[in-house]
Amino acid sequence: MYVGPDSMCLLDAASALGARKNVLDLCAGSGIQGLARLAQGNARRVVAVERESRAVRLAQLNAELNSDILCGHYAGANDYQDHTSFDLILANPPFVAVPKEICYESFAAGGADGERVVLDCIMTAALAASIDGVLALVLEVNGDPLAFAERATTIWRDITGFRPRLALLVDDDDKRADAANVATRRTTNNPNLKDVWLNHLLKQNIRTVRNGLLFMCSNHSPFDDVAASVGGTENLILYVPRLWAPPPRNSETRRAVAQALTYLGIQTSTTAV
To answer: What distances in angstroms separate CA 98 from CA 112, 113, 135, 174, 175, one per listed residue?
Structure first.
């Protein structure tokens, strides 16, 4: 199972959240996120959930070889059956906006606008998060980051009754994010399909595609919620150079993660659970 820079970014960012007793790993793939939490002593229990049968088998094998991760099939928020409240929800969902003419890898294809599974994970996280629970989700932000943040906020608020706190980190490379350059990268092995990708992105009103890292947590203060309704509280959007760069070249990302967690009022801990 391929472990890409998005997975590595989420691994590193999640380590800043310290110890969390119950962890939910959505779109778990090989189970790497949950296994890392257990190996670091930063989780007591991890539930890894995944839709693709091949990935489920691999996650189960990794769990048997390495630790006690519970594996199951993830089909969507409406099928979420575990009534445990989770202190941390990790997610690396499919996020690529794929044209209908293209047969793309299922672990990466996120529907026409790239948000189908991403928003479903946010919905599931809102249902599953404990009172102090945190969602950390890695994604490509297709289109305007501010607009995406508002969509995510609306989903969480509709489920919990409160506007969440949200921090979104996105890559600051405008040239790389441009839709035409994205289409070129998508078609390295088949340049004839570049126009198919570019036309699809523009049809979806996606003019930029940026690497992203999202943090959300419940906000149980009615005063903050009232302030938000009149424009007194805003989502935090941070533009970060080389957001998905691997360690040790990710110092800017680590600083941005620390800033985001401070903004959200999230307490970190280095104490094992």
So the answer is: 5, 7, 25, 21, 21
Q: 67 is written with which tokens?
A: 């630790």
Dist. CA 71–CA 82, nearest whole Å: 12
CA-nearest of 61, 88, 73, 67 to 28 is 73
Integer angstrom CA distances of residue 54 from 11, 12, 73, 82, 88 = 22, 26, 11, 22, 25
Give the residue among 219, 117, 109, 201 at the shortest CA–CA distance from 163. Answer: 219
* Interval 107-159: pLDDT, tens: 899 999 999 999 999 999 999 999 999 999 999 999 999 999 999 999 999 99
Closest CA to 92 of 125, 24, 54, 138: 138
Pair type for strands 45-50 and 22-26? parallel
End-to-end C-alpha distance for the chain, whole angstroms = 29
The C-alpha atoms of residue 71 and residue 123 are separated, in whole angstroms, by 20
Q: Is residue 248 predicted with pLDDT exceeding 90?
A: no
Which amino acid appears at position 31 of this protein? G
Quote the CA–CA distance of 53 and 29 in Å, as a whole number.
10
Q: Is residue 76 classed as helix, strand or coil in its secondary structure?
A: coil
Identity at 43, one-letter amino acid code = A
Half-sphere exposure of 126 (CA within 13 A, CB side): 26
Q: Tokens at residue 42, please?
A: 């930063």
